[in-house]
Design goal:
mainly beta, elongated, eight-stranded antiparallel barrel, Porin
């Protein structure tokens, strides 16, 4: 009887150990647990931004770069991110001429711009982008009968550092302006910024801006 029991036990052990002996050295028939599912939680899309910015603006007639006029001021901008790469911005700025003599002029500008983002990654802390847009500007000098109106176009670039909902950015724009052709509404030329004849209407310059943006 003992011999029969021992034979049965040996048979059971042999059957259990057979797969292990059939494997190559180093292999194991142990069950491998399935990898846990990875859940990616996206950060909320913050497409709308409101910016306060300070700017320095330098302009001169296209035919006379030495006749330079400097302005400083600030404004408000509202931006909307259409998709990962493209955005649109509407801005209004007010500038005052930097002068120690005479009556300073004021320049009021409104513009709409498109932005193209070079690194459209939601988690990127640095965001570089290109800027292109159109706008209008009005120059006002005390004593003139009517303001001087301009149409404008600009090209530029910017770099923003993101801190969750807050962004700090620096922008550089190259600006070209053309005086409105309504002669009856224009005063006589009273400054270096204004053209000196009907044919010399081009004005160009640059604008540097620092802005703080809050994203909703």
């Amino acid at each position: 009887m003992r011999t029969v029991v021992a034979a049965l036990a040996f048979t059971v052990l042999a059957v259990e150990a057979a797969p292990a002996f059939a494997q190559s050295p180093g292999e194991c028939a142990c069950a491998v647990p399935a990898p846990a599912a990875v859940v990616i939680v996206e950060a909320p899309r913050r497409k709308l931004g409101v910016s306060l910015r300070m700017s320095a603006l330098g302009m001169h007639p296209s035919d006379d770069p030495e006749a330079h006029t400097d302005f400083s001021g600030g404004g408000l901008a509202v931006s909307y991110r259409i998709n990962r790469r493209w955005g649109i911005e509407l801005a209004a700025d007010h500038f005052t001429e930097d002068t120690e003599e005479g009556t300073p002029r004021e320049l009021q500008a409104v513009s709409v711009s498109a932005t193209f983002h070079l690194r459209p990654y939601r988690y990127a802390r640095w965001d570089g982008y290109l800027i292109a847009g159109l706008g209008t500007a009005t120059a006002v000098t005390e004593g003139n009968q009517a303001p001087v109106g301009y149409g404008s176009a600009h090209l530029g670039l910017g770099l923003e550092r993101r801190f969750r909902r807050l962004g700090i950015s620096a922008e550089l724009r190259m600006i070209g302006m053309g005086e409105a052709k309504d002669e009856e509404a224009q005063p006589a030329a009273a400054s270096r910024m204004e053209p000196r004849s009907d044919e010399e209407r081009g004005i160009s310059g640059g604008q540097v801006s620092l802005a703080a943006t809050y994203y909703f």
